[in-house]
Amino acid sequence: MTASRVVTLGETMGLLTGGRIGSLAHVSEAHVGIGGAETNVAVSLSRLGIAVTWIGRVGDDSLGRRVVREVRGEGVDVRAQVDPEAPTGLMLKELTGPGTSRVYYYRAGSAGSRLAATDVPAGLVESVGLVHLTGITPLLSDSAREACLSVVRRARAAGVRVSVDVNYRSTLAPAEVAAPVLGELVEEADLVFGSPDELAYVVPGGVADDSSAIDELARALDPTGGREIVVKRGADGASTYAEGTVAHAPGHRVDVVDTVGAGDAFVAGYLSGDVQGWSVEEKLARANACGAVMCTTPGDWEAAPTPAEIEAFLGADVDPVQR
Ligand SMILES: Nc1ncnc2c1ncn2[C@@H]1O[C@H](COP(=O)(O)OP(=O)(O)O)[C@@H](O)[C@H]1O
Ligand SMILES: O=C(O)C(=O)C[C@H](O)[C@H](O)COP(=O)(O)O
């Protein structure tokens, strides 16, 4: 396997999605799959031709074996400890309407949440160009938080770039508990991703009420202009604040089927450009395309596009029926 250029760590769970729109109190059929923010990003990176390693823990159970097989099958270098003492976590996705859903997490005490600094092989972080973390992992447990901080310290010492997607999950911790934990990770990041609301959580000094004051938030997060603050704005696209300037990229108009996973695909698109030394504008363009494509099909990661699919999406002269 080619040496990885990116390493990421976090929890991947089984994912049951209702077979049709309706409450899971009544819908009787479900689709079985897997999902997790970091493997969603890893799979997307792999589809984009970027060699990537994922580190995590799974239970000694069928869902754990499914996670390992699926992610490895997508070409990701999987370093998963099998934890015999805890089950693989689970997410349930209830389809609430056309293009809308509600997610329930069953992850407290899961194998993935027991991730530890010792799960990260010696020399691995130091050998890549970029480490990607999300704000989910440090809120899973004390050992997972220590694993994140240890990886960040190792990356910093080795001159490896650090990327953090705030990805605040309110079910893991209330905002006042999460804010300092997310803040300590963001402080070490070269690249920070988040929605305006999420960035408001991690502005030093407390939770801002007015997430619409995004210019101010970005400046507060990066007063010296040394980082890239990337703001995800859903259908409106995205913006990057870097070196005292801002670049905006409008969103694409698509028929939305399922927006879950768009943020992860967006991040992967952006990072794929970052590790290849692309400009902010080029990174935003690819990221927006990846996010938009992901909205057009169900699933957290299955529709992650290849470069050829992005090109087709961006309007190459493609026959609507391909044979
Ligand atoms: N409805 C949409 N139409 C087109 N692009 C979208 C849409 N929703 C999301 N995207 C793309 O995916 C990116 C991430 O989506 P967003 O919803 O902002 O992130 P998150 O899922 O992390 O909250 C957006 O910046 C945009 O590029
Ligand atoms: O790992 C978790 O806790 C998850 O919630 C997995 C999510 O399904 C994705 O991270 C999707 O997130 P977006 O790309 O922002 O829609």
Automatic annotation (TrEMBL):
The family database entries (InterPro entries) matched by this protein are listed as: Carboh/pur_kinase_PfkB_CS, PfkB_Carbo_kinase, PfkB_dom, Ribokinase-like
Assigned EC number: 2.7.1.45
Task: Tell me where on the tree of life, at the top rank, the source sits.
Answer: Bacteria
Keywords, A to Z, come to: ATP-binding, Kinase, Nucleotide-binding, Transferase
Gene Ontology MF, one: 2-dehydro-3-deoxygluconokinase activity
The answer to whether UniProt assigns keyword Kinase to this entry is yes
Q: Which segments constitute the Carbohydrate kinase PfkB domain?
A: 5-306
Q: Which PANTHER family match?
A: HEXOKINASE FAMILY MEMBER, PSEUDOURIDINE KINASE-RELATED
Question: What's this protein's family per the entry?
Answer: Belongs to the carbohydrate kinase PfkB family.
Q: What is this protein called?
A: 2-keto-3-deoxygluconate kinase
Q: What is the lineage of its organism?
A: Bacteria, Bacillati, Actinomycetota, Actinomycetes, Pseudonocardiales
